[in-house]
Amino acid sequence: MLSIAWAPLYAHPLPENHRFPMLKYELLPEQLLREGTVPESAFFVPQPPPEADILRTHSADYYQRLRDGQLTRHEERATGFPWSAQLFEREVTILGGTLECARRALHGGVALNIAGGTHHAFHDRGEGFCLLNDQAAAADYLLAHPEFNVRKVLIVDLDVHQGNGTAAIFRHEPRVFTFSMHGARNYPHRKEQSDLDLPLPDGTDDAAYLALLHDTLPRLLEEQQPDFVFYLSGVDVLETDKLGHLALSRAGCRLRDEFVLELCHRHGLPVVVCMGGGYSPRIIDIVEAHANTFRVAADLWS
Q1: Please, which pLDDT band fits residue 144 given cuts at 50, 70 and 90?
Q2: What does the alpha-carbon distance between residue 203 and residue 23 come to, in Å, rounded to a whole number?
Q3: Phi-psi region of 203 (alpha: psi -120 to 50; beta: other; left: phi over 0)
Q4: What is the Cα–Cα distance from 71 to 57, expressed in whole angstroms?
Q5: How far is it, in rounded angstroms, from Cα 127 to Cα 192?
Q6: What is the pLDDT of residues 234-271, one digit of tens each?
Q7: pTM for this one?
Q8: What count of other Cβ atoms lies within 10 Å of the Cβ of residue 115?
Q9: Which pLDDT band holds residue 1 (cuts at 50, 70, 90)?
Q10: Which domains does the chain have, with CATH numbers?
């Protein structure tokens, strides 16, 4: 059975003008339960982790100023969010959810966070609606504990935006391989260098996208021999997305998820999935595309 991290506060810390993109955090669990993809017992409510598990990845100065509401105006603008205590609680809870997902995936094969994928957060700053880097912190957590027997981590970032914060955090860490397949002309305009970047032209469709992924990911698994995979399954690759500029159909997005997750399943690799972005004008396009990721996981790890 799947393990899925979700907390009510995922959806509620933001002003009204930020509310629409956050509706998916309320609607997705409801959809998965209503259609019977997962039972209610699949969900767990994550908790904020010990500060040591955050400070392994983020600088103490940045974390403490974020916690205490002391970011400069410039830093706050870069995150895209007005600071609040509830926003901070949301961010550390999301990070805690991904850490707990990592622990659960070691035993159950897969765990998913109905949030997370905050890949624009750097060691010492936040950017692009990302304040703390949950997948980076979870990778550092696994590597710091020898009892987990994780020696190599692969981060598969298929959000439409490059995982610049994640790339920078692990620039000098050979035990983490960062793979980002993203829109070439999309945010961030100044890219960092991942271990492997595949920038895509505007309008990339299902056939071109899937062919490149099929050519790349099996080779990475063979070359890198990871013990653990983090998958960022952003649905801002959809043609309907108002920010993405790629042209995947909902069916193509599901085929992407099937390929990534089936490879992990076949190789016996534990995997944590985080949702990442999705900004289609119709909320049904966002929720259905995200729901497909969970449906695929449920079919494979049933």
Answers
A1: very high
A2: 27
A3: left
A4: 18
A5: 13
A6: 999 999 999 899 999 999 999 999 999 999 999 999 99
A7: 0.96
A8: 28
A9: confident
A10: 3-300 (3.40.800.20)
Question: What's the rounded Cα separation, in Å, for the pair 126 and 66?
Answer: 9
Binned at pLDDT 50, 70 and 90, residue 20 comes out as low
Q: Is 113's pLDDT higher than 60?
A: yes
Is the CB of residue 121 less than 8 Å from the CB of residue 78? no
Q: Compute the residue count for the chain.
A: 302
In 3D space, the residue among 130, 138, 139 whose CA is nearest the CA of residue 163 turns out to be: 130
Q: Tokens for 176?
A: 């983490």
Q: What is the pLDDT of residue 90?
A: 95
Find the Cα–Cα–Cα–Cα dihedral 244, 161, 202, 194, rounded to 10°.
-170
267 belongs to the catalytic site: no
* CA proximity to 10, closest of 244, 275, 233: 275
Place of tokens 């099996």: 218
- Closest by Cα among 291, 219, 231, 288 to 110: 231
Tokens 């870069």 sit on residue: 78
Q: Is 54 helix (H, G, I), strand (E, B) or coil?
A: helix
Residue 146 CB-density burial (10 A; 0-12 exposed, 13-18 middle, 19+ buried): exposed
- Amino acid identity of residue 32, one-letter, is L
A 10 A CB-CB count for 269 gives 19
Q: Which of 119, 120, 161, 245 is catalytic?
A: 120
Q: How confident is the model at residue 197 (pLDDT cuts 50, 70, 90)?
A: very high
Helix %, strand %, coil % of the chain (to 5)? 50, 15, 40
Lowest mean pLDDT among 6-15, 40-49, 103-112, 221-230: 6-15
